[in-house]
Amino acid sequence: MKMSGLRVDVCANCGIESGDAVKLKDCTACRLVKYCSVDCQRAHRKRHKKTCKQRAAELKDERLYGQGHERPEGDFCPICTLPIPMPIKNHSGFYICCMKRVCHGCVVAAAKRGIVDCPFCRTSAAALGDDALIPQLQKRADAKDPTALEALGEQYSYGKCGLEKDVPRAIELWSEAAGLGSQNAHFYLGIRYFEGDGVPRDAAKVVYHWEKAAMQGHVKARHNLGSHEHRNGNYERAVRHWLISAKMGCEKSLESMKGMFVGGIATKQQYTDALKGYQIALEEVKSLDRDVAVEEIASLKFTAG
């Protein structure tokens, strides 16, 4: 998009040229022109309000859909270094001692070698009980560890490990973690504002936090954004989100893409790309140890039942 007659080396309002005495600043809305003062900035935006607003929306979409196509570091097992299958909590364990999430394949493999302590840092199993959990989390949270803040918030959110459920406290901790770059904290905040649990429902905050998480590679946040756009009738935007998350291994997104293809909204090429990407993502998380873990866990569930 180009504004006719405007040069980037002169003020978009008064026309003064850039030089030693005049330092022009970029218009933060459209990023297409420059201005020399606050008054000229206001005048420019007033005349070109629609264009600036449209360009700002385009720039936001470029960031939103152009980032977060790769899963974040925390989605990878620190031992086998493979991405953990989705949903992550069903295929891994989180260890407070080292703040690491280890896939079940590596946990079971360690157990078969007689290792009952933390499979990553070898902290003794006795130090991993609920009694030690909260003090360890609090100590790390006090040191501004975003993973610890996020995890401690989760304990308060659900009232785990002897803590009373305190959603406002969880929101406070997650907000701090989000400010330190935690995509999971952004995701949890979006969930709370969506459900209205402990805080008033706020659609704008839901979208804000899920967008922040999605741009950092959070798969479920990306899927949820697609669902949000679909509910609002923005089907093409929904397809763009689901195409990304399906390629990252989200089965629900692939199912949604199939529905959009059958409904004539997504193209055959888009659905084919989603299916191929999903299959590649599945291959990337496979390992022999994980196959064994699935069998072991299924056997334990069968025995318990």
Q: N- to C-terminal separation?
A: 63 Å
Number of strands: 4
**Share of residues in helices:** 55-70%
Number of helices: 13
What would the average pLDDT be, to the nearest integer? Answer: 90
Largest sheet: 2 strands, antiparallel
Under CATH, the topology of one domain can be stated as: Serine Threonine Protein Phosphatase 5, Tetratricopeptide repeat
Pfam family, one: Sel1
Family: Belongs to the sel-1 family.
Protein name: MYND-type domain-containing protein
Keywords: Metal-binding, Zinc, Zinc-finger
Task: Describe the 3D structure.
The protein is mainly alpha-helical and 305 residues long. Among the domains are: 1-47, no CATH class; 72-128, Herpes Virus-1 (2-Layer Sandwich), CATH 3.30.40; 130-201, Alpha Horseshoe (Serine Threonine Protein Phosphatase 5, Tetratricopeptide repeat). It contains 13 helices and 4 strands. It has helices spanning 38-47, 49-66, 104-112, 130-142, 146-158, 167-179, 183-195, 203-214, 219-231, 235-247, 251-262, 268-284, 288-304, and strands spanning 25-26, 34-35, 92-95, 100-103. A hairpin with a 4-residue loop joins strand 3 (92-95) and strand 4. Mean pLDDT is 90; it is low at 1-7.
Helices and strands, with pairings:
Blueprint: E1 25-26, E2 34-35, H1 38-47, H2 49-66, E3 92-95, E4 100-103, H3 104-112, H4 130-142, H5 146-158, H6 167-179, H7 183-195, H8 203-214, H9 219-231, H10 235-247, H11 251-262, H12 268-284, H13 288-304
Antiparallel strand pairs: 1-2, 3-4
